[in-house]
């Protein structure tokens, strides 16, 4: 079937760009640009779609939701909803610190990881201290860099044998005085990982006044080493953790910023001092205390992910070698066309990154959601690709000069 043109507006005539600007302007702290995955996913939907209508595999959400223990903890906390319960907040940070072998002063809790992500960029980037990011990667840091009037240097992902990893050497060379080198590992949107040793080498070579911000939102889907160990060694690194992904708490909001106390003290005065939702604190604590939650959900996700990646490759489509709950799918035509065609069938997939215009991001949903996606995908795609060898992931993926955000 022919592809319809992508609709570039949301309901009420609000354009995608204006939607994101409105989201940024709505921040309580003088219009700081706290743009989240939910903002970016919603802005990219070709047509307005209520969250309870159709199949949404577009925002890297976990359809399993909070664990049973977390749900019970939320219910038990509801009668105390009229209290602030600061001791519970402190207790949560202390529990996480203990589990990670950290001093509690190295952990600050936030309502999700989006706020500390943006605040870190604002704290360390400026007109002469650029933000260095991979391309493609999670876009939220670039909004904060724009607010800080900091240059944004994009470094294409390296692609040895389709690995789509951060090119750490090129990122180190991008600037002599970076404010922040942002490393999303596993990466959003590709779901791919960058070797720990390469990240550590970059952190060891940071110039004075620079920090690495390692976003570990998706690390629970893997068994790769965490950069929290580098925090313990006193290195110039800040690590983000969230309960939004594997723990299924995207709508409940809880996360941590981990780092040396002197680095945290540059970030915390900028915001995040409001009391945290006590239900989120309770759910996060219950999640941390459940030893089976991470390995069980990791196994479920791996099975679903590999089934769908295998299906797409068997039909001749190239897919990033993801270890996460999302992957990039090369559809060999403008990705927005495929996104719009699927939206007509009420299957809402992820957005297109300008660096990879012929690819779309797919979030791994439930078994039934992915079955519906597979069926709809074959219906909207040409049938002459069946049985072909997978195409190269991205013909355009190659080293290019560093570029500023347009």
Can you walk me through this structure?
The protein is an alpha/beta fold. It folds into two domains: 11-65 and 293-380, Aspartate Aminotransferase, domain 1, CATH 3.90.1150; 68-288, Type I PLP-dependent aspartate aminotransferase-like (Major domain) (Aspartate Aminotransferase, domain 2), CATH 3.40.640. It is 36% helix and 13% strand. It has 14 helices and twelve strands. The chain has helices at residues 16-25, 37-44, 68-77, 86-100, 114-124, 140-147, 168-173, 196-204, 228-232, 261-267, 278-288, 293-314, 335-343, 367-380, and strands spanning 55-57, 107-110, 131-135, 152-156, 180-184, 211-215, 237-242, 255-258, 318-319, 326-330, 347-349, 359-363. α9 (228-232) links the parallel β6 and β7. The model is unreliable at 1-30 and 384-406 (pLDDT under 50).
Secondary structure topology:
Layout: H1 16-25, H2 37-44, E1 55-57, H3 68-77, H4 86-100, E2 107-110, H5 114-124, E3 131-135, H6 140-147, E4 152-156, H7 168-173, E5 180-184, H8 196-204, E6 211-215, H9 228-232, E7 237-242, E8 255-258, H10 261-267, H11 278-288, H12 293-314, E9 318-319, E10 326-330, H13 335-343, E11 347-349, E12 359-363, H14 367-380
Parallel strand pairs: 1-11, 3-4, 3-5, 5-6, 6-7
Antiparallel strand pairs: 2-8, 7-8, 9-10, 10-12
């Amino acid at each position: 079937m022919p592809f319809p043109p992508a609709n570039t507006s949301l309901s009420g005539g609000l354009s995608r760009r204006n939607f994101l600007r409105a989201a940024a302007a709505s921040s309580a702290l003088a219009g700081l640009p706290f743009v989240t995955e939910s903002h970016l996913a919603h802005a990219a939907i070709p047509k307005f779609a209520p969250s309870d209508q159709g199949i949404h595999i577009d925002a890297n959400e976990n359809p399993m939701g909070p664990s049973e223990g977390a749900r019970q903890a939320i219910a038990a906390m509801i009668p105390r909803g009229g209290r602030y319960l600061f001791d519970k907040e402190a207790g949560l940070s202390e529990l996480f610190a203990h589990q990670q072998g950290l001093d509690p002063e190295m952990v600050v809790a936030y309502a999700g990881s989006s706020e500390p992500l943006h605040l870190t960029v604002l704290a360390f980037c400026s007109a002469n201290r650029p933000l260095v990011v991979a391309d493609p990667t999670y876009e939220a840091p670039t909004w904060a860099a724009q607010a800080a009037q900091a240059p944004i240097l994009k470094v294409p992902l390296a692609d040895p044998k389709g690995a789509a990893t951060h090119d750490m050497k090129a990122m180190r060379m991008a600037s002599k005085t970076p404010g922040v080198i942002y490393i999303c590992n596993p990466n959003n949107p590709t779901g791919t990982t960058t070797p720990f040793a390469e990240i550590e080498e970059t952190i060891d070579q940071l110039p004075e006044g620079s920090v690495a911000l390692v976003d570990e939102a998706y690390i629970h889907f893997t068994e790769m080493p965490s950069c929290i160990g580098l925090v313990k060694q006193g290195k110039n690194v800040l690590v983000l953790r969230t309960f939004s992904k594997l723990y299924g708490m995207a709508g409940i909001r809880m996360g941590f910023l981990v780092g040396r106390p002197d680095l945290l003290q540059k970030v915390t005065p900028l915001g995040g001092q409001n009391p945290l939702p006590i239900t989120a604190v309770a759910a996060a604590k219950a999640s941390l205390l459940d030893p089976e939650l991470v390995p069980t959900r990791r196994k479920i996700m791996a099975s679903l992910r590999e089934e769908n990646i295998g299906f797409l490759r068997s039909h001749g489509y190239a897919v990033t070698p993801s270890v996460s709950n999302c992957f990039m799918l090369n559809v060999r035509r403008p990705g927005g066309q495929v996104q719009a065609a699927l939206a007509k069938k009420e299957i809402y997939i992820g957005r297109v990154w300008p660096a990879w215009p012929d690819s779309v991001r797919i979030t791994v949903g439930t078994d039934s959601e992915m079955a519906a996606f597979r069926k709809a995908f074959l219906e909207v795609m040409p049938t002459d690709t069946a049985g072909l060898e997978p195409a190269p992931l991205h013909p355009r993926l190659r080293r290019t000069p560093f570029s500023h955000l347009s």
